Amino acid sequence: MTEGRVSAGEGEGERSSSDRRRERRPVSMRGYIIRRGGETHVIQIIDLNYGGCGIQTPVALDPGEAIQLSVHNRGAIPAEVRWYRSGKAGLDFEPAPPRAQVERQATRVEVSAEVGLRSIGRNSFRVRVFDLSSQGCKVELVERPLVGDAMSVKFDGLDVLEATVAWVEGATAGLTFRNAIHPAVLDLLLQRMSV
Question: What is the mean pLDDT of residues 3-23?
Fold first, then answer.
């Protein structure tokens, strides 16, 4: 392993796919990397988006190296080292396998708006919502949740809705509301979003 080694065309500010080009949000989270053979090191996650993250690491990493990234109570995520330089590295998360189709309980309407989204015990982010029904919605991700995770969704003008992650694919997730939105409230919400 050579410090400062960067794969061709890759650097801290350069990324080769659309997943990596998306803006990463600054964070400060303690985590662990697990290398082949089970070698584990404490790291600090310094920025994050749904496709990858930046870390501070006490050990040199090789571009292309497959590792597991683990954050307390979030499980281990397969990742690949994209670059390493002076105690920092960029990781790409491996794409999840295609999701199975989820049977819809209600017709979803395409929308283009923003909502507040928060995983329980985490920061809230403003994200895009792509479709909406009385039973759930499809949202953009900043931090990648796991299927079954509890989330809070805040539409402007409504109380917070509790939801569960039904599926995750790339930069988006499908959420199922714990309590359905009343049809009259949904109509008003859709009217407000179309203005």
Answer: 43
